[in-house]
Each structure stands twice: as C-alpha cells, then as structure tokens.
Design goal:
This protein has 174 residues and is of the alpha/beta class. It has one domain: fumarase. It contains five helices and seven strands; from the N terminus they run βαβαβαβαβαββ. The protein has helices at residues 10-15, 33-44, 87-92, 106-114, 127-131, and strands at 2-5, 21-30, 57-59, 97-100, 118-121, 134-141, 150-164. β1 (2-5), α1 and β2 (21-30) form a beta-alpha-beta unit. It starts with a strand and ends in a 10-residue tail after the last strand.
Length: 174
C-alpha cells in the first residue's frame, strides 16, 4: 500500500494508477453539495474562495458531531455523482483530487484527465472507522450549513483507492 504525505503534488498524482490502494496523511477539506454550489457561485461572481484549491483534496463528506474526546464524528464518503456538475469548475481552479464513493460522469473523467487530477474512493459504510483516521477537525467555512460546512481535517493513514487516475483510467469502466 502506497503512503502519501499531503499536499499531493502533480508528480505524485501522475504516478498513481486506477485500483491502487493509498494511505493519505496530511490536510483534506470536506465539502458536499451546498458548499460546492457556494464555491462555484464565488467563481462566477469572481469572489475569493474559502480555501486555496491548488494541490487541495476535497472529501465529499458531511461529518456527524464528535463524541466526547474525539475531533469528529462518523465521516464516511457521500455519493460523488451529486458533485459532478461542480467538479469541472473546481478542477479548472487548481483542485487536484477529490474523495467520494461511486462512479463519476463521462465529463468528470475527461476533466480529471485534462487537469491531471485524481478521484479517490473511500470505503463506504465505514464512517466510524474513518473518523479514527482524523486527528484534528476545524470548521473553516459556511458554518450555517451544519454538517455540509467546509471542514479542514488533519488525517493520518486515511485509506482510499484510486478510482480514476490522472490518465483517465477508471475502475468503474466496463
């Protein structure tokens, strides 16, 4: 299993292959539908985004409240297809990778290849386990969105699989 210290670089992203198992350590940002919509509105309105997308990884996740002594509650992946309409705009602004579950649209696969980005798949149904990989969590934008706010997560050995690599190879392709 390959270990990657974040932030992810273009060089590291280019070496990843669809189907490869990876452990990520460093900073991820969470964002779901409502946060994606707001970030895309910022792009259209030429406003500052709440996070620097360059070399960033966005995890499609809406964490639950933490139990006492924990930095975060369950934090499993949400269905990625719901973010497909927003993903091209974010990739064009420097987003390098995303994490979620399930297949992506043909357009997103093309955009990942164009921008040399990567789609990681996190294990579904393992939100409590994934929370153990989170060492720190901070709400950094859109707090009024509750669990759909943007969080900065510090993770250690966060398990993912390369679902679509920077060359467009896709584990979901027939």
């Amino acid at each position: 299993m390959k270990k990657i210290q974040l932030p992810l670089t273009q060089k590291e992203a280019a070496k990843l292959k669809a189907g490869e198992q990876v452990l990520l350590s460093g900073i991820l940002h969470t964002a779901r539908d409502a946060a994606h919509k707001r970030m895309c509105e910022c792009i259209v309105e030429r406003k500052k985004l709440p996070l620097d997308l360059k070399r960033s990884i966005i995890y499609y996740c809406g964490p639950t409240p933490p139990k006492k002594g924990m930095p975060i509650g369950a934090c499993g992946p949400t269905t990625s297809k719901r973010m497909d309409e927003f993903t091209p705009a974010l990739l064009s602004r420097g987003l390098l990778a995303v994490i979620g579950k399930g297949n992506r649209s043909t357009e997103v696969v093309k955009e990942l290849k164009k921008h040399k980005g990567v789609y990681f798949v996190a294990p579904a149904g393992a939100g409590a386990y994934l929370a153990l990989r989170v060492k720190d969590a901070e709400k950094i934008a859109y707090p009024e969105l509750g669990p759909e706010a943007i969080y900065r997560l510090k993770v250690k050995d966060f398990p993912v699989i390369v679902g679509i690599d920077s060359k467009g190879r896709n584990i979901y392709a027939k």
